[in-house]
Design brief:
By secondary structure, this protein is mainly α. The chain contains six helices and no strands. The longest helix has 46 residues. It is elongated and about 150 Å long.
Length: 202
């Protein structure tokens, strides 16, 4: 096998000959972003990653320190030697409560027994959406009033139109000549008199 060149041997023997590369930080996203929302977003992500890495590193250091301080053995949350077994005896207050006789119906005051729940101060439960129901009721009443008003005005308008049409027909009939072509003044005067009366009343 061919021997290595001298230059390669010198480099491999002493690592000091190689110039040390400067550590470049990690990059997030493209490097040529203009200033603006996208660049700030990328910077924010990078800072969050750095912060999380620092927290993780410090947590690992604390964990290693705790493991060194702990005594060897099975790691447990509770130390079973320190836990005391629960006693079957009742607490003195509970025992006193159980020993006390229960009050009967006769021992209670009569006013408390006879009084219904409402009189004890229990308030009526407020209905949900009470305000909205009230507003809806008001709107409904207003629309009903408007509908009635328009209905009445339509009826009045229809009555006026019918009256006008009737008057027009009567006038046309009165103005139309009889058999000889003369106007019927008696019929025409009655129609004109009604017209004058109506204009005075209005």
């Amino acid at each position: 096998m061919a021997s290595k060149r001298k230059h390669d041997q010198i480099e491999s023997e002493s690592g000091a000959m190689k110039p040390k590369k400067a550590k470049k930080g990690f990059s997030v996203g493209p490097g040529n972003l203009p200033d603006g929302t996208h660049r700030r977003k990328v910077q924010k992500i990078k800072h969050d990653l750095i912060r999380k890495a620092k927290v993780k590193k410090s947590y690992n250091k604390l964990k290693e320190r705790e493991q060194l301080e702990k005594p060897q053995g099975i790691p447990t949350i509770y130390n079973f030697e320190e836990i005391q077994p629960a006693s079957l005896e009742l607490h003195p207050d509970r025992q006193a409560m159980l020993d006390k006789p229960e009050p009967t119906v006769h021992d209670r005051p009569e006013a408390a027994v006879e009084r219904p729940r409402r009189q004890r101060g229990q308030r009526r439960k407020k209905a949900p959406f009470e305000k909205e129901v009230h507003l809806a009721q008001q709107d409904k009443e207003q629309t009903e009033a408007k509908r009635q008003a328009t209905e009445e005005s339509n009826q009045q308008r229809q009555a006026r139109l019918e009256e006008k049409e009737r008057f027009r027909k009567e006038l046309a009939k009165a103005r139309g000549g009889g058999k000889s072509g003369q106007r019927k003044l008696g019929c025409e005067s009655k129609v004109l008199l009604e017209k004058v009366k109506r204009s005075i009343t209005e």
